[in-house]
Batch of 4 targets.
Target 1
Amino acid sequence: MITNLDAGIEVLSGTNLFACTIPVSTGVFLSLTKVCPAPIFPNTSFTVGDTVTINLTVINSESTDAIGVTVVDQIRIPLNVQISSLTTNPLAALISPPTGPYSNTDILITWTGLTIPAFSSQVLTVTFTILAAPSQGNVITNVDAGIEVLSGTNLFTCTIPVSTGVLLNLIKVCPTPTPPNTSFTVGETVTITLAVINSASTNATGVTVVDAINIPANVQISSITTNPVNSLIGPPIGPYSDTNVLIIWTGLTIPALSTRVLTATFTILAAPIRGGVITNVDAGIGVLSGTDQFTCFIPVSAIIPQRGIPLW
């Protein structure tokens, strides 16, 4: 597109009154298709060490050769996935960023100066190796592509599922008061336990585990300590009351055929005499499960006064 931006007597008008455009092209109509690979059945994702190849096909349906063609492709790598440097066929004119490994970034691939003969097509490929992936899985997104520029639509969007191929299970245990007590009282320490179980013969690396705790308005607890300590707690510091607390452990390694125990510990600072309940709302590997599978309850109350002493 050639743009005649402006005109004027003596000087340019500074407006769009005289703006016009002149469309130009080779007169050759090109179309583009993209194919993201699928894992080989029965696998549902690509695993660490697998090679992935994305195919783009430029089709010339006209009787004239298309010369000087540019094709672009964009790939998005999430935070907990790492891939190798890219190889392309034919060699891309520009890969940005130019070298891997890549993680938590977008990669733009640009081929320039291509010739697509009349009534024919050319296949372009992008190939890389999965270097790291979370056990719970994630997705590499081939975001967009286009001839000359990215299309700006989801026409060329496709996804590539990746994981370590290791299946993990999670168990949560909320503590119970020591009989004959039926609730935890002010000053007592409470420990929530989560167990991550790796039943596979391969180590699970880069594992993320999350846990969510709801503290009601009439209960107050201390700051939370975790084991292992490489966790993110939000809000980061207590005391907590009338809030939800999210605990995230990242970068965990669960050895093959073993279990990793995680704990979250806090102290009851205040509770109503008639009792209240701290709800361990949810947990999950990677993300919260969104179900009540990991929901449990921790009853709390103030120290019960001696018999005969009024409560108010």
Target 2
Amino acid sequence: MNTDFTAIVISVLNQALHWIRSDLASKDVALRQRAEEALRR
């Protein structure tokens, strides 16, 4: 169970990095601001 949980957490974090990169590259100002705020935390 612990190994499964760790794999899930790693997968979610990897996906979050993809989402942030995508938002940073977006032409939508609100998406870019949200991504920048996420990186500051």
Target 3
Amino acid sequence: MKKHALLFGLLSAATLNCTQVNAGSYANNGAFIEASDSWYSAVNQHDVKMVGGYGFTNGAGVMLTNAYNIGKGDNIHQGYNELEGWYPLPSTTGFLSFMPGALINANDLGSGLAGYINMNMMFSPTFNVSTRYRYNHRNSRTINTVDEYNYNDSHQFIVYFNLQASEKLALVLEPNYFIHLNQFRAANNSKYHWEVNAAARYRIDENWMPFVELGWLDRHTLNQQEQVKIKLGVRYFF
């Protein structure tokens, strides 16, 4: 159970953080804070996240996340802390661009890190598609499915479909595919699993942006149910 909770907690952190979504007439650069609550159906638990970050005018950024697992609302404990940064590479075309990034995280079971590279294709001023390859690494060895100590690492492949539906409304569809290494398995008891997230952000004004996200996180073997995520949050730009 701890392994499964750790896996989903750490790997879901990228959702909605660094997707390249147009902002209409509002700027996304500058300092921001964010608060969100996620409910996971198969385990009937909530995660609360507090995020602070800064976006630079060239598209680079840095972000710190503190996550807390509150169970069914009656048991609060620290989930994980994560620091992430990204920097876009110079582009000679308005259509294709690349952006590397990296993050480090830690919880009571140890620490981890990840590196990724984004390829963004801007098909129009209101629609773009980004593909991302990310490698997730745990810094300490734990027991795998064949009772050996090894690193619980994984490959992660993501596609972001970003649509600026109106001046204030942005929509994101984000399928993720994971390949688990070193004889470790996901919560679906497989070496492979999918996560599919769909999100809507509404930019009320230059400061406030509430959002909602629905996700399917594959089947969970804890009680043989599909793991569904419902996330509600708000971001404030300074």
Target 4
Amino acid sequence: MSGMKEDEFPILGSTQRCDRHFEELLKTLHKWTTGSSQATGQRYTFRSKELVLDYKLRLQFWAGSVGVDDELMDCLDTQLRKKPDLRTLVLQLLQLVDTNLQRILHFESPRNRLGLVVHYIFKPWLGPPTLTPASGAALDAIQGCIERLNHLAITIR
């Protein structure tokens, strides 16, 4: 997307950024599960990846239901030009989703997770590594933002 188009359609741009970050996070979680033992990866994959994928699909469903990427004259950015307060609220919620996705990507990066995996190797009775508490809190924030976006969808329509 060009810079000019991003300025004209910030909701579309924010939604696309969130989608890219969801994909990057899913790849990161997949690397953790394929790089660890089968026993370590199963619980980590099932809970974390399923949750992230669910939130990604929920955001995509919201975007489709309000017409984020419809024709230029019918898209959400165009519809909300006459409702700046609502537009600002949607943009802030999308920014919160994006910011929290970036936080999770940072917390779950291989360099930050290395200590947890090494700890599990030497103390397997503690169980396989899961998302860090900070990542769990960021996922909760993402869930709350998506729920609020869904509530706003009623007002937008």
